[in-house]
Amino acid sequence: MEILGVDAWLFWFIAAMVLIAAELVVSFTFYFGPVALAALIAAGLLLAAQRLVGVFLALASGPVVDRFDSERMLALSTGAVAAGLALIALERIYLGAAVLIVARALLGTVSPIVAIRRAPGDRIAAVSAYTTWSDTGLALGPLVGTLALAALGVGPTYAMMAALTLAALAAHALGGRRFR
After folding, report:
1. What totals of helices (H) and strands (E) does the chain contain, helices first?
2. Cα 76 to chain center, whole Å?
3. pLDDT digits over 87-102, tens only?
4. DSSP H helical segments within 69-153, as ranges?
5. What is the mean pLDDT of the chain?
6. If you average pLDDT over residues 13-38, what whole number do you get?
């Protein structure tokens, strides 16, 4: 059975998740107050902006990658991520966040293309490896980042992330090409 063109179980699952999210927002607001609600809305808008930029960049990334080479675009977007992190470390938070949103969206569209081009015989394995490592970073990043923020503070944590990103970029530029 379908509801609005979607399997019934999926429709009810999505409806339940929306209701649970709404209840969490109401409970959060009731418990912590309107300032917390404003912070929650700001965080949601920031995540939505990141996803929307990713959608729009995905539409243009194919021709751009074909014109400028996927490896070059990967290096450029990784460098831009490091620049955004460094800007936040230097307390240029809004500019750094804007750079990070665009760079991360570009990185998310270029990285799978690079993975597929590096393993032309087995595209499924290449994309699944990329997805596995990306999801691992998304899972461990907030945990490690929170610990680093608690231990070091905001500026040093973001400076460390920028330095690690640049170190990974340098390692790829110096020796990573031999793993193709």
Report:
1. 6, 2
2. 16
3. 999 989 889 988 988 8
4. 70-89, 93-118, 123-152
5. 80
6. 72
Q: pLDDT tens, 46-70?
A: 778 777 887 887 777 778 777 888 8
Asked if 165 and 150 count as a contact pair (C-beta separation under 8 A), the reply is no
**56 residue type, one letter:** F
Report d(CA 37, CA 45) in Å as an integer.
12
Domain boundaries, the chain: 52-179
Burial class (CB in 10 A: 0-12, 13-18, 19+), 36: middle
Which sign does the torsion angle of CA 121, 177, 63, 96 carry? positive
Question: Helix (H, G, I), strand (E, B), or coil: what is residue 156?
Answer: helix
Q: Which residue type does 11 have? A: F
3-class DSSP assignment, residue 30: helix
* pTM check: above 0.85: no
Structure tokens at 103: 């760079």
Q: Tell me how far apart the alpha carbons of residues 146 and 153 are, in angstroms, rounded to a whole number.
A: 10
Give 179's DSSP letter.
G
